[in-house]
Amino acid sequence: MRARPTIIDVAxxxxxxxxxxxxxVNGELDxxxxxxxxxxxxxxxxxxxxxxxxxxSLRTDRTNIVMLxxxxxxxxxxxxxxxxxxxxxxxxxxxVVFANNDWIGEHEVEYLxxxxxxxxxxxxxxxxRVTQEQILASQIPTVIMGLRDGYPDxxxxxxxxxxxxxxxxxxxxxxxxxxxxLLLGQSVYSSTHSRLGSYYDFLERSGIPLDxxxxxxxxFDNAGGVNGMRRLLELEPHPTAVLASNDLIAIGALHVAxxxxxxxxxxxxxxxxxxxxxxxxxxxxxxxxxxxxYELGCQAARxxxxxxxxxxxxxxxxxKIPCQLVVRGSTGRAVG
Amino acid sequence: MRARPTIIDVAxxxxxxxxxxxxxVNGELDxxxxxxxxxxxxxxxxxxxxxxxxxxSLRTDRTNIVMLxxxxxxxxxxxxxxxxxxxxxxxxxxxVVFANNDWIGEHEVEYLxxxxxxxxxxxxxxxxRVTQEQILASQIPTVIMGLRDGYPDxxxxxxxxxxxxxxxxxxxxxxxxxxxxLLLGQSVYSSTHSRLGSYYDFLERSGIPLDxxxxxxxxFDNAGGVNGMRRLLELEPHPTAVLASNDLIAIGALHVAxxxxxxxxxxxxxxxxxxxxxxxxxxxxxxxxxxxxYELGCQAARxxxxxxxxxxxxxxxxxKIPCQLVVRGSTGRAVG
DNA sequence: CTGAAAGCGCTAACAA
DNA sequence: TTGTTAGCGCTTTCAG
Lengths: 336, 336
Description:
Oligomer: homodimer
Distance between the termini of chain A: 81 Å
Order of helices and strands of chain A: HHHHEHEHEHEEHEHEHEHEEHEE
CATH architecture of the largest domain in chain A: 3-Layer(aba) Sandwich
Shape of chain A: elongated
Largest sheet of chain A: 6 strands, parallel
CATH superfamily of the largest domain in chain A: Response regulator
């Protein structure tokens, strides 16, 4: 099997210099005459030459690859975000490497290191524990996905979780609910303060007294919803409505409630946040607040591209993506 | 901001040659004395040196990056497969670039080209239209995911869709069903023959006469299920059970049926294939045949690693992963 | 418009 | 055990 042809082979065959071939390959056509262009292209075709981007990366210090680092692609929230990112980045000639950190801080640092070793051009990250300092030290153009404190100097884009929760709570009170349980997703290094803050703020504004027992910390998955909902239903009186930090939790809650014989929404209303696909197929289908996942990915990619190409203002961008209330069957008027 | 230190800077500081540093960085510790090892490591730490894998790739002709090419990461089947792949490849030091071809043959070829330009070390692909010749010509070690004809010389791993369908049909006939509708997922360049063949074979073996109208070609998504199910329910008499090519289709079917007032499974049984997460949260939850998605990813990665590292036999491997019947609530005894 | 020459940072013979 | 040397394939001044 013959070795792959290089730029030199092409140059020889076309009777020109490497430089000229390089110009053709990189589309710098203003610097090449029609004539030589033709010769070079014919040589490329006949040899089946393919540019070696490794070599070119070594010279240019650009790889045209970025990293997407998230907790787990298996969480149904992320694939759509990833699509948004890939569609935009792909259009600009970038490939994207995926990294799952599984909520483990050490993995985060390791992947960051991988990104540096491979001289990746950019990083899109939903951070767990990595600090702004670590990110800045890595020298990699970065966009934080998800609204977080602690990264004032880095571009950031996220769904407006605070107002998502507000929308949910407003909607539930409009239905007459006063005792609203909160299944609060919590990771080890959690920062879901905005949702918790949102809850407190809302109660205060609405003049509803706070009952601490209505707030239950749970894991971000189905099991979290199951366990949390059990605890809420032990309360006397139990909440007439429950808001979960995400749809996975809400669906878990939905199922325990149904199993325990509660009718939904007649006996108890349940809401999620995110609007993943599964939320639309439960029975009753889940009322939720939609996060624009694809859009989130696009915006993140846009910010990253601007940063990589040094377009846009030098100061860090912060973009907040609005959420929409999606009313389905799991919520109804408060009983009594 | 200072330029990144190179292997030469480390060599100077440690008072050794580049070669020695290279050996340390690459863990060839048997070729380095304790003493120099210490010196080099101290130099590396104090300079904050990070290996430039681009440069090393240029020399070694290995990138430690592979490509995963699938139709769409947004299809809930794939994230789990991807996890299996990433977990295994990651452990061996490989990163993985994702590519979505959106069922478009041209994209497939473009991504293949990208993989070559970037000198990726391997390719994991669920092929749409790309031929064995094109893949072999690319010189990239490849594993086909999904059982297909037309790639006799390439490693392949897939769920045993044929027997998955057999299991489903057997189960349904055991419940007394004789008129079984088939919602057959079909892409433009489709190759779901195995599932169709499985259906014909089964009818023949069971002595059930074939009614062509019971086989409906649909797209691989929710909408496919919706449209296909409408057609099946127009039949007189309509089927007492319906098997769909995947869960997305089945869930679509489930919803139309429910909307049209059919009780499930009392009036009609519905089954899917795959066992995606959403299948477990519908009401009734979907009876299905589970494909071991994570396992599939692991096996694919294993084959690719063996191929890359030239372990294992030179002849192409073909591995078939068994499926399991998962009985849930959407199926019941045939009426009448 | 074209080309010569100098590297990018690293690894792999080959010597010592 | 260590170092010398010669590139890997490409881009980028700089001169013509």
